[in-house]
Amino acid sequence: MTKKFFKTVILNTLPVMTGYLVLGFGFGVLMSDKGIGIFWSFLASLIIYAGSMQFVLVNLITSGAGLIATAVTTLMVNARHLFYGISMVDKYKKTGRKKPYLMFALTDETYSLVCTGDTPSGINTHKYQFFVSLFNHIYWVTGSLLGATFGQVIALNTKGIDFCMTALFVTIFVEQWLTSSNKFPALTGLIVSAGCLFLFGKNIFLIPSMAIILIVLIVPRLNVKGEKK
Hints:
Layout: H1 3-33, H2 38-48, H3 51-63, H4 67-77, H5 80-87, H6 99-104, H7 108-114, H8 125-153, H9 164-179, H10 184-200, H11 206-228
Helix pairs in contact: 1-2, 1-3, 1-8, 2-8, 3-4, 7-8, 10-11
């Protein structure tokens, strides 16, 4: 691996770095505001590494939520990662010992960088995927540590800080809408999510939304493959 390799990885993950440092910082500050130490902020970002869920986790910890409630909430918030993982099984098939970490580190932003398969020319695909995942992970942990440390030193008003993850998702959606020629997946996500929100309510709409979106997007592909056979 050369300087050119790492330069490419850094340049391609630069937008994620700016977002993760800010969001991770916000998470660290929020943890400190709730009286949770720097070590736990570091450990949560290192092991859990699930942006939106980590913000939810702060409230779960401070409210004394039980294991079952925490597990169900985690499943609902991070259900989309199940579909990310399924879609990357073939792409990560020959990654060897890197595979467990690659699946673990598959966040929304990392997924958007590695799922396209557009690896820069002359660079090993699997090494590129691994270091993109690793660098993004480092950005998040670094942001959390900085925020937790800052929060211990200076008292801040954290009201509304947990909205930053929502803002990030909106930004990602807008960026993909503007750059993608196929609007069907985005429209499917919007319409199905809105419908399920109306039918099931805000507390349980996520899982049925994901299931319906998966069916809508996968079934037509299966039919096409069947016709080709």
